[in-house]
Write a structure and sequence with these properties.
about 290 residues; alpha/beta; Rossmann fold; eight-stranded mixed beta sheet; 9 helices; binds NADP nicotinamide-adenine-dinucleotide phosphate
């Protein structure tokens, strides 16, 4: 990965931090994003010391805010003339319904609209850097989900796992449509299920004590963040997947999705709706 520039969102903890570590160990130039300046700086310092790779830097943005995603892309462009690998990793589950500063339901804003907008803002740079890769961290939680176009933001009825599953299904549908749009550009787009990982995921937010204990118990059966990062690192770096696009991987192998994640009509419709939500009506819908 020497000479390759990788941008990885949510690099301060969990799977993202281990993905950054893996890519830095392979010699890549790595830019991690975090939402907190101190945590981002600490991540950069630690990873540089641990991997011996000084080419690690950090950018700060609250990805649930569209304006910060746009600024993040501009900050990245100001520092880097190319982007070989974008890993859309930042994500979370929200126990109760919250809205972002833009007034968008948080799960949808952070897990789906942020990577959608980031790719839009960096698209020409990615294409100009081809062969290049976009890797989006989805989840097996997509299997229980559908895209509820009548209530995308859970305004009528909100459930944390329903909203989370929908956002992860959206990650896969986004990948499918992006891969279609990237045909002929030598840019690939793939999605990942990292496995059940004992990261910081699900630990924030208020929930009853019994639920908190149940979650802590389940985490005993989870894999480490390092193990969870392996498929992202593989898709970002391995020659095995050169030219492979529009797929969903788990444990470094192609995996099956549910039928909803293969519906090209839904993928297309989601793209148009997402563009409108980002105020980008008509943009990149070729
Ligand atoms: N853990 C699992 O079992 C599992 C399973 C399937 C899929 N996934 C997916 O894997 C990805 C990584 O999750 P993880 O398990 O590593 O969780 P994590 O340990 O909570 O890490 C999440 C990362 O996203 C960042 N982040 C959260 N909210 C943000 C915001 N508003 N703006 C910018 N960055 C933000 C966090 O930054 P801070 O340091 O500021 O918190 C952190 O770096 C997510 O997309 C998740 O949906 C996880």
């Amino acid at each position: 990965m020497l000479g390759k520039v990788c941008l990885l969102t949510g690099g301060t903890r969990g799977i993202g931090r281990e993905t950054a570590r893996g890519l830095a160990t392979l010699g890549a130039t790595v830019v991690v994003t975090g939402r907190d300046r101190a945590r981002t700086d600490e991540t950069v310092r630690s990873l540089a010391a641990e991997t011996g790779n000084p080419a690690i830097t950090g950018l700060v943005a609250d990805m649930s805010r569209q304006a910060e995603v746009v600024r993040l892309a501009a900050d990245f462009r100001a520092a880097h003339p190319r982007l070989d690998v974008l890993v859309n990793n930042a994500g979370a589950i929200f126990e109760t319904r919250e809205t972002s500063a833009d007034g968008i339901e948080m799960t949808w804003a952070l897990n789906h609209l942020a990577p959608f907008r980031l790719v839009h803002e960096l698209r020409d740079l990615i294409v100009a850097s081809a062969p290049a890769r976009v890797v989006t961290v989805a989840s097996a939680a997509h299997r229980i989900a559908r895209i509820d176009f009548d209530d995308l933001e859970g305004a009528r009825r909100y459930g944390a796992w329903t909203a989370y599953g929908q956002s992860k299904l959206a990650n896969i549908l986004f990948t499918v449509e992006l891969a279609r749009q990237f045909q002929g550009t030598r840019v690939t787009a793939n999605a990942v299920h990292p496995g059940f990982v004992a990261s910081n995921f699900g630990l924030e937010g208020q929930r009853p004590a019994w639920m908190q204990m149940g979650w802590q118990f389940l985490r005993l059966f989870a894999r480490s963040p390092e193990a969870g990062a392996q498929t992202s690192i593989y898709l970002a770096s391995s020659p095995d997947v050169e030219g492979i696009s529009g797929m969903y991987f788990a444990d470094r192998k192609p995996a099956t999705t549910n039928g909803a994640a293969r519906d090209l009509g839904t993928a297309r419709r989601l793209w148009v709706v997402s563009a409108a939500q980002c105020g980008l009506d008509g943009a990149i819908t070729a």
